[in-house]
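User: Run a structure prediction on this.
Assistant: Running it now.
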Amino acid sequence: MILERSPNILTSKYSKLLPFFKGSCKGTGEALPQAEGLLGAGCFAYLCAMSFFKTAKPFVVAGPCSAETRQQVLETAAALSGMQVQLFRAGIWKPRTRPGSFEGNGVQALEWLQEAKQLYKIPVAVEVAEPAHIEQALKFGIDVLWIGARTTVNPFQVQHLADALKGIDIPVMVKNPVNTDVDLWQGAIERFEKAGITNVAAIHRGFSGYTSVAGGYRNQPNWPIPIELKRRKPELTIICDPSHITGNRDRIAEVAQKAMDMHFDGLMIETHPNPDAAWSDAAQQVTPARLKEILAGLIVRQEFTEDMTALMQLEYLRQLMDSLDTEIIDLIAKRMELSEQMALVKKAGNLTAYQPGRWREIVETRGERAEAHMLSKEFIVELYEKIHHESIRRQLLILEGLENEIKK
């Protein structure tokens, strides 16, 4: 059993002893007695079982949007090699929105990444969108593959890529689909897992919209989507991509910190020696020096604590919150009962279920009350939209004489 060579990813005290070994083992029949002798069999076995993406907090992926030239790739890799960066990224094949834009240097750029990996002892990652991309990437010793948002949205294409990887256990990162569909994202991840990939991570890069995105984002973060994915798959590594979410280098630090505060596992930040001259996505790339500042300024919070006073305070507050949640559900149930009674009155009077004037009144009065309690009007209106939708659904069933269908 041997450890594959790959640099800068062990963050424990053993990283100084084995700076160039990746935490995944192959049963080749060979041995690495130096490692077992230095670490002991137990620690050696632990490192063998360690997930590739669980070796640092945060797990940092950095590098240019596109591999433009050999000099640019090597200059960036040299700058990042001395930082807390676990994986070097660069776009080789670029799926651009419109033809005529720079679409990557293809196989030629793989040679540059291979050279960067050898010179600076840093693992490298590229985006793949076709089985042929996978074949070429593996030929040049690429360590990690990622699936782009435009590919994730297509289950047929994802399955083609998963089939191409059967029998090859290489770490894979899956970006969220461009549309807000957690099932589609989860499904893409599971296709790779079923193909035998044991190290899979999700990348949250935000979601596209038809108009300019609220909040000044390039892609709306829609945080509940990755939070729901984490609920469904608790062991899944989720990496935030603040570059694509913001589209603005001045906001990357802000979103990166928010991701850490929300217990994300890592960050993917596009980094370029001269961002303003970048051939693609110039506005959202930072210099290596700025990346170093962003990482140094991060406050990395923990999920657990051994402080018993804090634990007791949290437990008390959680019990209070649980009680309030029970009351909220009971009150919503009573509100639905009233809605059903109103439907009977509407049916007897031949009235419509939906009455625009009444809905405008609800939006206005509840919004004002929310603001009086220092709550977001937008949040409360969105909440009432869901309540109103369920209320109308129930009333329509009563108007149609389908009362028995209400609870279904």
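The chain has three domains: 2-48, 53-297, 308-405.
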